[in-house]
Amino acid sequence: MSFHLMWRGFGSYRNDEVLQQLDLQASIADITRIFTELRIDYPNTPIVLLGESMGGAIVLRIAAESPHLVHAVISSVPSGSRYQAKKTAFKVGLKFLNHEHEQFDIGTAVVEQATADADLRDMWEGDSQMRMKLSPSELLNFQNFMGNNVKAAAKITDTPVIIFQGYSDNLVKPMGTIAIYQAITNKDKDMIFIGRAEHLIFEEGQFDDVIFKGVLEWITRHTTPLVQAKS
Q1: Element holding 32 (H helix, E strand)
Q2: Which of 32, 94, 104, 201 has its CA at 20 to 30 Å from residue 190's CA atom?
Q3: In sequence order, what are the residues at sequence separation of 6 or more whose Cβ sits closer than 8 angstroms to the Cβ of residue 149?
Q4: DSSP 3-state helix, strand, coil percentages of the chain (rounded to 5)?
Q5: How many structural domains are present in the chain?
Q6: What is the mean pLDDT of the chain?
């Protein structure tokens, strides 16, 4: 059984007057409510969260704040430490001074940094679930959230975590992801660097059988004892 969760401000939420605003803390509260209900209906089913980029940061935050709800976490490139961060901050700052709630195209630049593959850029930019425009206030809230990732990771004391980072990532700095990994206090943690990988490792068409089998083996290793103990 698997679930694909959508954050506020993305996908169909973009057309909702209340939920179209990017709100990561509210998204975490949404997910927490969902998994609280799942725990009632499926008390013996292990729950493993996988998130990438912003989603990678969110699943780590859930493990930090609600460790009783999840059994393991797979987090890919969760760091907010980005290349060209000063250039982006200057642009957002100017927009904020003039029109803090007016959306502008930030997604095109992000996609260009995320991959050098022209076909992938076209596919991501044409994805109806993508959010290419955000307001300066949303971007500032996003960066504040991402800036607390290391502090949040330090609260993960019991949940097993595996973190992925593409070494060819031109968007997120590897050292930022390493800092998050080092902050996790639970010793049951792993970090995988993939030399050829760009920013999105688990996006459709980006991962191969080696990555898939490795992740599946890690999940099995961390959930099988739980299932056996409760059966």
Answers
A1: helix 24-41
A2: 32
A3: 57, 60, 61, 78, 79, 80, 180
A4: 50, 10, 35
A5: 1
A6: 81
The answer to whether 103 touches 198, Cβ cutoff 8 Å, is no
CA end-to-end distance (rounded Å), the chain: 18
In this prediction the pTM is 0.81
Q: What is the CATH number of the domain that holds 53?
A: 3.40.50.1820
Q: What is the mean pLDDT of residues 147-151?
A: 93
Residue 86 pLDDT > 80, yes or no? no
Tokens standing for residue 26: 């509210």
- Strands 104-105 and 133-134 come out as antiparallel
In which band, very low, low, confident or very high, does the pLDDT at 94 lie, cut at 50, 70 and 90?
A: low
Contact 122, 152 (CB under 8 A): no
Q: Is residue 164 part of a domain?
A: yes
